[in-house]
Design a protein that fits this description.
Oligomer: single chain
Structural class: alpha+beta
Number of strands: 4
Number of helices: 1
Distance between the termini: 27 Å
Strand order of the largest sheet: 1-2-3-4
Radius of gyration: 12 Å
Length: 67
Amino acid sequence: MTDFSSAAWRKSSRSSDNYGQCVELAAVSGVIGVRDSKQRDSGPVLVFSRNELSAFLRAVKAGQLHL
């Protein structure tokens, strides 16, 4: 399990300033953590390799995920 307690989180440039719908990312030990900024201390962190995150973002942009 990757420790993100001292990670330098940054807000996604695609996150909205309205309604607190923000996604934050941080790189630690060769992986990327993704979290909901509204749940910084108590929420889960999704962990991706760089390749996994790239594949996920490509699928989102292509409309391949039905959420």
